[in-house]
Design brief:
Layout lengths: L12 H16 L13 E6 L5 H12 L3 E6 L11 H11 L2 E5 L3 H11 L3 E3 L7 H15 L13 E5 L5 H12 L3 E5 L8 H9 L6 E4 L2 H5 L4 E4 L11 H8 L6 H4 L7 E4 L11 H5 L5 H24 L1
Parallel strand pairs: 1-2, 1-3, 3-4, 5-6, 5-8, 6-7, 8-9
The chain binds phosphoric acid mono(formamide)ester.
């Protein structure tokens, strides 16, 4: 069975640690030049949704691993004229060596993995965003650890996600955080609390959850080590914009919330950010914000994820 990375838990904790060690090495040695991990390989990148960071970091990363990245907007493929995912995946399996896919439904990335026979990386679905959560764990390890990627440096840290806690980022952070013993607090309006699908993801992976939910932003921020948020209006939810902004306003990450957090607490955001909505301009641009390290780490971590898949599938 070809290994893919479709859910945060598709790597064991030990494998994820190996990914982070490799990412730290890739980051340190980036200037050494192009590697030969993907020598002779063509990887397809299919986007059903818009992207800046994911597209650029995968395209650059695959090149830096010695491979050939081929970016495709799903709207330009025959998929958009009714060709099935199964047939498209089978065809791609004849040409390519791996796929990176950003889609709406999780089933689309699952079906590409099932029918292509290729390693597939989930580059965001409505359910999960595991490449971002892995980059976030790595960024926390850098921030709280002395050097490299030491998982013990984030164990027991209080990580609070504010906003829509039934979204892909909240779910991936709950899963990845639980793999590393992070105390994940999901904080938002009751109406946007996690659904039963999050518990199903934990059950399917036989992973003990280390997350909790609260609708009280002050209680959540108290003693927090990381304050994290994401846009209130995710891709595909645009018609709910006014309602979401009104309901989530009390959960804005701002100076008032930061005063309740630990002294060395940091601000994280997967980006793009909407300053003045989910985060105040002062916090977003302030000295506690590590958003650009976080964004850069997508590159190093994704190179490591792809390298792990190549290694596991060769073995
Ligand atoms: N964080 C993230 O996935 O960014 P993009 O939507 O720009 O890829």
């Amino acid at each position: 069975m070809v290994r893919s990375f479709l859910r945060d838990t598709d790597f064991s904790r030990d494998e994820a640690c190996e990914v982070f060690e490799l990412a730290a090495r890739y980051k340190r040695l980036r200037a050494a030049g192009v590697l030969d991990v993907l020598k002779g390989q063509s990887w397809g990148l299919i986007f059903f949704k818009k992207s800046t960071r994911t597209r650029l970091s995968f395209e650059a990363g695959i090149y830096e691993l010695g491979g050939h990245p081929m970016v495709m907007n799903a709207g330009d493929l025959q998929l958009s004229r009714g060709e099935t995912v199964a047939d498209t995946a089978k065809i791609m399996g004849r040409y390519l060596h791996g796929l990176v896919i950003r889609a709406f439904e999780q089933e689309v990335v699952d079906d590409f993995a099932k029918h292509s026979g290729l390693p597939v990386v989930n580059a965001l679905t409505d359910l999960l965003h595991p490449c971002q959560s892995y980059a976030d764990m790595f960024t926390m390890m850098e921030y709280f650890g002395s050097e490299g990627a030491n998982p013990d440096s984030i164990k027991g840290r209080k990580f609070v996600f504010f906003g829509d806690t039934a979204c892909n980022m909240a779910y991936s952070l709950a899963l990845a955080g639980s793999m590393f013993g992070v105390e994940v607090v999901l904080c938002g309006p009751e109406e946007f609390r996690p659904g039963p699908e999050l518990d199903e993801l934990f059950a399917d992976a036989s992973l003990k959850p280390s997350y909790s939910f609260t609708s009280d932003p002050a209680a959540a921020a108290k003693g927090a080590d990381i304050l994290y948020t994401d846009v209130w209006v995710s891709m595909g939810k645009e018609e709910e914009k006014a309602d979401r902004i009104a309901k989530m306003a009390p959960y804005q990450v701002n100076e008032k919330l930061f005063k309740l957090a630990n002294k060395n607490a940091a601000f994280m955001h997967c980006l793009p950010a909407h300053s003045g909505e989910e985060v105040s301009e002062g916090v977003l641009r302030g000295s506690r914000s590590i958003i650009f390290d976080e964004a850069e780490n997508r590159l190093h971590v994704q190179k490591a994820i792809i390298s792990m898949l190549v290694k596991k599938n060769a073995g």
